[in-house]
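Run log, item B.
One chain of 263 residues. Sequence copied directly from the ordering sheet:
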Amino acid sequence: MHILTGCNGFIGRAFCEELNYEKLYKIGSKNSFDFLDSFNDWDKVKLIIHQGAITNTIETNIEKIYKYNVDFSIKLFEKAIKYKIPIKYASSASVYGNQTNIINPLNFYAISKVIIDYWVTDHIDEFKLVQGFRYFNVYGNGEENKGDKASAISKFIRQIRNTGNLNLFEGSENFFRDFIFVKDVVKIVLNNNAESGIFDLGTGLPISFQEVAELVAKKEKGKINYIEFSSHLKGKYQDYTRANMEWLGEYEFTTVDEYLNSY
């Protein structure tokens, strides 16, 4: 049996699709704490995949974020330690903020991920296996309900299909992101030979928003509408993100162009 938290989220649903042949115990946010209180078959669990969290980066309810992102996670990790169950969980590249591979969280969501990563680091020798993955810019099928929280790739596709144009900040040739296809995320999380640790998870090959916009516009037969860079984002917008993927070894990532041609 596998346990999956966050089963209703974008990435969680991708895990559900991949593990449809497994006996999968799915946990959503509404029943998360009830599950901890009532579940008694820990000895039958082969793997815990912890994807559940409040991911809203502008959420300011600290108690709510702590309850679901920190308190629940620690209680789940304690179960994994007690029953010697391997656990793989979602961290976030947001812990780096505007820095490159330096911890510098800029919002409460990112702070909650830092707290958990530090907790895991402090207890890492107690786990049978624990792997945390700092997801970079994950995109793919299934983002339709994410609205403004969707990846730039999915937002650009939606804009063109709705209006014939996509909106792009002026100067986007200078802004780079490490975009990773959601199915690559799932495959790497479930199938890697690394030991316990906390790892970046992107492609290690960032591309500019300008290039992404051009690829989408070409594929969807739309036009790019350049807009002025928002003043409220100045000083708060990352110029460049890149995952350190030396830990993984050889892997053939899906490119944005390949994804668009198969979408």
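Observations after the first pass:
- The two ends are 32 Å apart (CA to CA).
- The helical segments are 10-18, 32-38, 62-82, 108-123, 152-163, 182-190, 209-220, 256-262.
Flagged for discussion on Thursday.
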